[in-house]
């Protein structure tokens, strides 16, 4: 049987990158030209298992490829690409704007705090910014996020989260107008498999500090560990254990960067029986000991 086209689409953390989430923050912000010019303005179709993209295009043209269809769009506009949605872009060299990527824990937190408004992050869509006041609000919020992301200061984590909440509310107001430029839910193809993966990621989010075994996770999902691993590798490009370890590593980075807890305390809250086990885990995945990672973060 020929493989489904969706299984041939590469799964990235950020486009072109297969290593771990590169920041202790729950979001990543960069200008659109920063990455796209490295790829001759062409971002080929790919998907993310656990990331949401928000693109703010202030100036320029973009051909948006989304789940097999292509739309020619022009700024100013905002594009939403939910997790698991196959997407690609062809930007004009005159493009100006930013791409903000939300890690799953932040998307989950927004869903809890903003309820219906956060639903705008789950619908693939492109929204034109028609009103001058509306455009100005997005420009201001995105500029503040970019500034805070690039120049950390006290309270960075709290301010970034507050700003992304405000941006999500603005996005929900755009969505309230109704479908814009082909707004669409994720396709039904592979819905069941995608649902299993999303359920597994939700279990990780709720239990990663206890570090359950993959067999225990699989039991909670009503499947075998082999089936769970197959789904994770096919849809997320990583094993079930790798996905758990990525979440542990992200939390470890956050605790080492934003708290004064000792390394032993961080190891304890993340479910490691001994600090030495935590140190080996962290160094194996990052190439740095927890102590050296903390020193580097505080020196930047």
TrEMBL record:
UniProt keywords, alphabetically: DNA-binding, Transcription, Transcription regulation
GO molecular function: DNA-binding transcription factor activity; sequence-specific DNA binding
Domain HTH araC/xylS-type: 198-296
Gene3D superfamilies: Homeodomain-like
Pfam family for this entry, one: HTH_18
InterPro entries documented for this protein: Cupin_HpaA-like_N, Homeodomain-like_sf, HTH_AraC, RmlC_Cupin_sf, Tscrpt_reg_AraC-type_HTH
Name assigned to this protein: Transcriptional regulator, AraC family
